[in-house]
Amino acid sequence: MFIDDLLIEYSNRVSLKINPPLKTGPVLHADKPWESHRVGAYGTVMKDGALYKMWYDAIDEKGNIFHCYAISTDGIHWEKPNLGLVDYHGSRNNNILPLPPCGTVFIDPKAPPAQKYKYVTYGHGRKGFLGEYGIRVWWSEDGLRWKPNSDYALPLNADTQNQAFWDDRIGKYVAYLRAWHPMRCIARVEIEDILKPWPYKPREDKSYSPENPSSWPVPTTELPIVFKYDDFDPENVDHYNPCVVKYPYARDVYYMFPSAYLHFPEPPLGKRHNDGLLDIQLATSRDGIEWNRLSRDTYVRLGRMGEMDSGMIYMLVGMIREGDDLWMYYAGYDYSHGAYDLEKMRYKGAIFRVVQRLDGFTSYDAGFKGGELITKPIIFTGSRLTLNVDTSATGELKVEIQDEDGKPITNFDLNSCKPIHANECFKVVEWQHGDDVSPLSGKPIRLRFSMRNTKLYAFQFV
Question: Could you say which architecture CATH assigns to the domain 20-357?
Fold first, then answer.
């Protein structure tokens, strides 16, 4: 996959582009009394067996925050089942979970069945259901009935959406949390045992006393910061809501979908405190630590003025593969960050679905004048070379296989390659003699891509 220039030795008139997904519209609306202010902004979506599952926040007209549950058989039409687990205004006919809000769910492949589902949350304090503070892990056998871990994970109050997952690349759990340094940014911590206290570096000027969790600080320097604004960002932009995905369909690929927050001036220059607009960006990584923001083009843009996602958008954690498509979900609102009004705003926000091409987040693009790429030496196994490529109608791509020194290999030179005119995720490359590349397997080779009006997303030997 082309998520950076790691494999590229030479390029001419091509550029690495971010490809926004297709917006398909809202799939879940605020329509219950406990959602009477809004749904979202934080949550998780996954396909668990044949069932699509969503865990999401909701806020009622008093500002109370809950974590709720929805299910679907197709990922498009969602049902809010009556779980009977939590009393709301004298009734248990609701989809509220016995959990504090502002967290994310993951399936723990290392856990016993009784602890299959894990939930990492900050709790959101007095307005959050159960009034929890601090980072805590909860666990469940079915994703509905939850038990809190006896120990806090961290004596820190990391606001909004935090997450964790098992990273099979390093054989540890990894968590990403909101931090401040000094503006919003994202911290990371590696964990051997997710149910034991997580490592952190206390500050001398802060208190982490277990007697008073509400006074625990927000993370600043206690944890390593791995993603933040820099000199290329406007001075009034920072980032949070990390939404990190270890990509399951390629080796050592991580994606982050943070919300970028453009702050409006504070009063008296601005109208409101802590106000501004948010959209979703994209960052890539090979290890989950060093992140590349590429061109910094917006990944999911705000909707047009007046549309339901025209003010703020936040990606939910989770990525679902459907054939050669990838589905993700985000929460959207038609008002800016500081413009909410609990007394007047009712049933705001929605959860939206977006669709991305498999491996399609980024691509090397060549215009109509043409361009080319040459890789560094690589060694492969397999018998065929497949491409994830889109030439549309007037584009074209050819592939040449070179030896380690950059000399074309007989029968695999550019003139012998049959021109590719296709929009496919697994297009097999053919030369005049056929498509079998197995004689070159295990040997260092280079690939030369010559293309016109083409998007090249990935290559793979199979």
Answer: 5 Propeller (2.115)
